[in-house]
């Protein structure tokens, strides 16, 4: 675990260094300032927490100070952290709501309804449990118990506030609103549940509740809401989609719990592996709903790199804030054990969440398939920058052009801009290149020039020459497609492209 934690932190540091290098090469003063501020916050959270626990508080309160006997204080701290966890994840979800921002009042109402509805778990459970299963340590019995008695009940309770808001208000009027409001419902439920777990464990499960359990609740409810949003987008039966999503969410929820609570099959690493896989899927779901937004505006951007570091710092604050709180509750020994365990076992999850949830690329109209690769144990690293709307000039290479492209080469250098983003052969780093002055003779090559940077990790905005792949869409009927196969594109030899900002 130590090696895994070190590798995760090194990966995050490497990605940060890449972002810093890109910002510096392009002269992006704002990006450099934000990155320096993020580093300062990270160091400040860690250093101030260590100083408080190791030096300042022991000197003020005494080495043996602890509040463990004051249960009301523990409950108050637990509620405070539970609300903070929900607020952090609401903040993240709101960062992705870039086109048509939701009213805060409606989201607060959704949260309150969800927190209140969480208490329905108990009476519904009393009605269901006598007629279903109880845990006995066998595989199929315990799995069915987790799916029916836990998953189906909790997912039903979580989706109720969402359906009330959907039916009685006009707040959910954009595709992404489905996952946003569904996420808020999950956060309201999780706030109540987290308060109970944190109180009963004197905050020792804080990292797990903040980084794993709460996110899993959002993912499970997100399955239902995503199913409904896609049915609405594809003009299919939303009710059928909701029921399908509900069953799938219940199975996912039950499967997650099974490996934690079945006495015969307690393998927490299976739950962790399932959780990591769900993060990849959840990221695709969010990205797809942003892509099909009814309020799409190509001038607005998801600040993916910035969100990655902001989320990292917020979760880091939870970890080290818990470190200080546990010192106040149970003393320095418990606090040091908590932070050691957190750094050892949760650093990887911390980086995994920050990097994966920062991997959002907007391609208007593109719905990526929900599939899981073989590398789900690694963060979803997606560093494709978005150059939509930016001006570039296409240039020839020094090599002698082939006969088939001399027509295009004779027109170079060709000024234009990236006017649309599209996906070619599952690579979503392609763009329509619209020349400032279009020569009709180009139609001999195809109906639309498309461009793809040869190396996606190079920042094209540094005003240097970069190698790009060039092609033409062959047929007029494909011009409005957002996803193309290679047989729909005429590939040409690579050329050079340079960013030329308007003066």
Automatic annotation (TrEMBL):
Superkingdom per UniProt: Bacteria
InterPro entries attached to this UniProt entry: PrsW (IPR026898)
Keyword set, alphabetical order: Membrane, Transmembrane, Transmembrane helix
Entry keyword Transmembrane helix: yes
PANTHER family assigned: PROTEASE PRSW (PTHR36844:SF1)
Protein name: Putative membrane protein
Molecular function GO terms recorded: peptidase activity
Entry's transmembrane regions: 39-61, 73-92, 104-124, 145-166, 238-259, 265-285, 311-329, 349-368
């Amino acid at each position: 675990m130590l090696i895994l934690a070190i590798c995760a932190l090194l990966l995050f540091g490497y990605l940060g260094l890449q972002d810093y290098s890109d910002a510096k090469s392009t002269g992006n003063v704002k990006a450099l300032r934000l990155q320096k501020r993020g580093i300062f916050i990270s160091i400040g959270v860690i250093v101030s927490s260590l100083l408080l626990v190791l030096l300042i508080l022991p000197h003020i309160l005494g080495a043996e100070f602890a509040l463990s006997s004051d249960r009301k204080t523990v409950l108050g701290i637990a509620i405070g952290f539970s609300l903070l966890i929900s607020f952090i994840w609401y903040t993240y979800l709101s960062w992705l709501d870039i086109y048509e921002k939701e009213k805060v009042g409606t989201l607060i109402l959704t949260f309150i309804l969800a927190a209140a509805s969480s208490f329905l778990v108990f009476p519904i459970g009393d009605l269901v449990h006598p007629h279903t299963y109880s845990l006995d340590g066998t595989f199929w019995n315990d799995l069915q118990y987790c799916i029916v008695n836990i998953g189906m009940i909790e997912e039903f309770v979580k989706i109720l506030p969402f359906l009330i808001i959907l039916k009685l208000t006009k707040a959910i009027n954009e595709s992404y609103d489905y996952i946003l409001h569904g996420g808020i419902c999950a956060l309201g439920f999780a706030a109540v549940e987290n308060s109970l777990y944190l109180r009963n464990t004197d905050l020792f499960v804080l990292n797990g509740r903040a980084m794993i359990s709460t996110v899993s609740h959002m993912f499970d409810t997100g399955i239902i809401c995503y199913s409904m949003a896609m049915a609405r987008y594809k003009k299919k039966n939303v009710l059928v989609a909701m029921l399908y999503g509900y069953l799938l969410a219940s199975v996912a929820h039950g499967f997650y719990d099974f490996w934690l609570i079945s006495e015969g099959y307690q393998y927490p690493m299976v739950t962790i592996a399932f959780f990591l896989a769900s993060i990849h899927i959840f990221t695709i779901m969010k990205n797809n709903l942003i892509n099909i937004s009814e309020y799409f505006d190509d001038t607005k951007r998801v600040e993916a790199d910035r969100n990655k570091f902001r989320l990292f710092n917020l979760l880091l604050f939870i970890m080290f804030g818990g470190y200080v709180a546990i010192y106040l509750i149970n003393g320095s020994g418990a606090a040091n054990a908590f932070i050691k365990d957190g750094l050892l076992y949760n650093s990887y999850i911390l980086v995994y969440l920050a990097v994966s949830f920062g991997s959002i690329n907007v391609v208007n109209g593109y719905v990526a398939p929900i599939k899981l690769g073989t590398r789900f144990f690694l963060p979803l690293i997606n560093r494709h920058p978005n150059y939509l709307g930016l001006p570039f000039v296409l240039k020839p290479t020094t090599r002698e052009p082939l006969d088939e492209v001399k027509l295009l080469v004779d027109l170079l250098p060709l000024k234009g801009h990236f006017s649309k983003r599209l996906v070619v052969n599952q690579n979503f780093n392609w763009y329509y290149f619209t020349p400032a002055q279009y020569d009709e003779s180009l139609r001999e090559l195809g109906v639309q020039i498309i461009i793809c940077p040869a190396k996606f990790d190079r920042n094209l905005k540094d005003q240097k020459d970069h190698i790009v792949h060039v092609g033409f869409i062959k047929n007029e009927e494909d011009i409005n497609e957002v996803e193309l196969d290679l047989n729909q594109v005429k590939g040409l030899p690579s050329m050079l492209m340079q960013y030329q900002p308007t003066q």
